[in-house]
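Give me structure tokens for this 867-residue protein.
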Amino acid sequence: MPGENLSRDEARERAALLSVDGYEVFLDVRSAVGEHEGEGARTFRSVTTIRFRCNEPGASSFADLIAPRVTAVSLNGRDLDPSEVFDGSRILLDDLAEENELVVDAQCAYSRTGEGLHRFVDPEDGEVYLYTQYEPADSRRVFANFEQPDLKAPFRFEVRAPEGWTVWSNGAGERTDGVWRFAETKPISTYITCVVAGPYHYVTDSYERVLADGSTLRIPLGAMCRKGLAKHFDADDVFLVTKQGLDFFHEHFDYPYPFGKYDQAFVPEYNLGAMENPGLVTFREEYIFRGKVTQASYEARANVILHEMAHMWFGDLVTMEWWDDLWLKESFADFMGAFSLVGATRFTDGWITFANRRKAWAYRADQLPSTHPITADIRDLQDAKLNFDGITYAKGASVLKQLVAYVGQDAFLEGARRYFKRHAYGNTRLGDLLAVLEETSGRDMGAWARSWLQTAGVNTLTPQVLLDTEGGRIAELAVVQEAAGPAHQPAPPAGTPELRPHRVAVGLYRREGDALVRYARAETDVEGPRTVVTELAGAEAPELVLVNDDDLTYCKIRFDATSLDTLKERLGEITDPLARALCWSALWNLTRDALLPAREFIDLVLRFAGRESDIGVLQMLHAWARSALTHYAAPDWRETGAALLAEGALRELRAAGPGSEHQLAWARFLATVASREGDLRLLKALLDGTEKIDGLDVDQELRWAFLEPLAAHGVAGEDVLAAELARDDTASGKRHQVRCLAARPSAAVKAQAWAQVVESDALSNALTEATIAGFAQPTQRGLLAPYAEKYFAAIERVWGERSIQIGMDVVSGLFPSLQDSSATVEAADAWLRAHAGAAPALRRLVLEARDDLARALRGQERDASAG
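Here you go.
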């Protein structure tokens, strides 16, 4: 049997053969406490009963289970020898009957990588916390099952836990005779089952709504976190957004929330942002804020809460058949997160964040050599794991926003309502969704799907402006569309670029006093290489033409020469925050495409970011500016650029309103770019209280932010970091300390960090991530140089030995991108040539990192030419 990496063909064959009537799962997790740290892998007992049917009696199949040991296997009353039927990841099932009962008694392993049943020991008080995380295929690490999304079934869970613990699962539960028993679920997929157990701090509320038939829907609400975070837990705000989301989705979906209760667990060492387990959503606990954060952080949390809630319908109620159509849940949840954020909460500027932050993720992913159609070709589970990317989430959501503009919001939402009712508790493919949208919109969705869902790459739209002979009015304004990039199946004729239909708004802007304002706008359908916007002929000559004004479509936008000159002089004068955010995003794309020198982008940030009103956009600009300096600036200009950014950050920090979120954002940015002696001295003085900036509260989280650059430049040593951990002896403090320790400028430190991550599996997922983050400091290129060769020598072994999550963290996080020379690109190419047979997912990660580096080198060359 092929092992852990289930293929699509195997899944289809098994789904054609089997159907599942139900699961009964018993877990005994009392072993989670009472054992001494370091005694080796802990295990827990897992007993699973699966009742299923086979439509070809006598046939063979297999169940999935990843476990150190199987104690007993029984199939239809026959005891099977575990050593003969279990190979470590699959249980062979021969001579199946029409109706079958499989019972598997196993010892499964607690996880330290965030995959399966994760066990966390809180360093603050020694308490143990458990939670599960399965997507795409890690429930088999906890109980025996058929691990694929289209074999849905009802689940009954029972959990025996240590005294004093509470246990939660998808259904409502109660404790009797020392065992927690949970109500049977609706038919759901294995990857969204869930168990959370431990001494969690738990807060309750409730939601009620009168439905269209006059009945009252009552949903018990719960929210939980570790006891150590209880003092920081603003559960009231979590519940507020939850109730607003439930109101919004009930109003628009016309299908009552189908899973009973609604618990939300904020859990430690979580690999993802969140997971949509019905009735028990799990989140990373960093969404509980230990210090002061900006409104952008609260908006991001609200967006994630709503994203996961949308999954209750898109993904949980109706689930994709296989991971090819992962977009049927993730693209919709990403779109619905922003849609409901703006429509139901206080975060009414959510589309600005979407345009500036989420789409930047999509644009990067869509220009990588690994780009893929939104409906992807997912051959196996490793492919699936890597396709939780910017294409599936942000590009898919952007395309749905375009679809709403194309068919109309009413037709789109009515299509969703029919989709839920028609396929409730079932599985779907692309065609099922297109069918209902054709019904409600009257449009041919096939052509739209071929252009937008079944091809890859991002189009570029550029305005062409022809003025009349006097130069005062527009004679003709056209939008030029360029190719989407490598076409994917179904492919157009050879040599033909993929030019998509776009519904766009084109805005014209001019100065009025000290402001740059829109004075004309037209919506049009862009098709083919050149589209004339007839509605704007005769308008006064613009100073700025903004294609894709209001962000209706998914594209990269460019500027004509006049517009680009205007932005370089007056970007901060654009009054509309969305238009301003779109211009910033376009300028960043120009920088990444080596069309705008990095130093010019940094200059724009220094001149205009201080006038940015939207805090989320400002924080994105800070991230882009640092990336421009680290990756796209010419090497001999980096020191100058760093000094300019630090000077600018300090200037804006002192000018910002005392106690404002802009002040906090500039303080954090200063910490990321500080390298000169004076800047480091200021950070140290702010830490020890010998200097203050009016209104700036240097709380614990900001203390750690200041300590990292001090550690990276040799100002804060191991003793200082140990003292800070004593001050903040928590799980969060430990992660910060580990990151700062790895950041120190010492060859011995780097060797130790490398060994901890690459040569050992002793660190948990969270501490692995922290070590990698500290290891790769942009100002330590010389120290890191020896690890380029070591990286290529180690990664195939690491990929084979470690879990896929840790493998991804190591391969992506330790790629020698800071060794920015053609020699590193050549080394990556040589590895790819020599490892043609390596796991495709591993090759993809290396290829993506190699492409990012090659792009950076082109940017550096462009920047050097501007020097």
